[in-house]
Amino acid sequence: MFQILLENILLTIIIIALMLLSMIGQVLIGIIYQKLINEAENLSSTENKHLKQCKLKFQNCYQLNGNVPNISVFVDKFINRLVLFRLSLNGLRSLSSQLMMLSVFVAGIGAGIGVITGETLLRLLPYYILAIAGLYIYFSIAAIVDIPGRRETLKINLMDHLENHLLSRLKNNLSLDDTPEKVSSPVKEKAAKEKISTLPKTVVLNDNPLNFQTEQETRPVLPQFSEDEIEELLQELIV
């Protein structure tokens, strides 16, 4: 019954290859998500470059804006930017499903060619069996891999670490930077100037332990005369 598949071996190889590529794509996506989930459970000491970039971007965003208003959107954008072979994981998933549909289409082409050449329905049945078996295996693998579920688990783990661990640590570091012990020097200088301005501007030297004389003490005291006394002295000098 499967002799027609051997007679059109090239067409059969194309169908099987497309099916295998679509299944491999699903498996690769599941492996990547599972690896990220395992690393995200211990995100503080992870060595994964993608998760390190996520932490660094989150820290930079918090330091620039003082807050990250919507962590859910931040995590979604990070997951959407995950790539494999320069192709996003969402794009790879779509490509995987398209390859499966293409394999079914090629199997339909093989059956159509058989109808044109006068083959009976019994001889064309292997193409239908191959297409149905490929679809069954593809959807079984998709259910086992559960890409949407793994994606949601990764998102929950990332949000848990960013909100409950990294965000609180960044807030504590920011509060330590704003303590009164780290007041800026211009403020200190201004306070010192105000304190100096309140001091008295004159100092009276009442007690001098070294017996130094002030300028007023060393200046000679001149006698004071009235006008009559000055006129009498002038007259005496003239006479």
Detailed description of the structure:
The chain has 239 residues and is mainly α. It has one domain (3-177). It contains 10 helices and 2 strands. The protein has helices spanning 3-7, 9-40, 49-65, 71-80, 89-116, 121-145, 147-177, 185-197, 215-218, 227-238, and strands at residues 83-84, 87-88. The protein has a two-stranded antiparallel ribbon with strand order 1-2. Helix 4 (71-80) crosses helix 7 (147-177). The protein is rod-shaped, with a radius of gyration of 47 Å. 18% of the residues are buried. Mean pLDDT is 79; it is low at 179-188 and 201-218.
Key terms for this structure?
single chain, 239 residues, mainly alpha, two-stranded antiparallel ribbon
Number of helices: 10
Q: Reading side by side through the largest sheet, how are the strands ordered? A: 1-2
Contiguous uncertain segments of 5+ residues: 179-188, 201-218
Mean pLDDT: 79
Beta-strand percentage? Answer: under 5%
- Name the helix and strand elements from N-terminus to C-terminus, one letter apiece: HHHHEEHHHHHH
The secondary-structure class comes to mainly alpha
Q: How many domains make up the 3D coordinates?
A: 1
Radius of gyration: 47 Å
Percent range of helical residues? over 70%
Largest sheet: 2 strands, antiparallel
Q: Cα distance, first to last residue?
A: 169 Å
Total E-strand runs: 2
The dominant shape is: rod-shaped
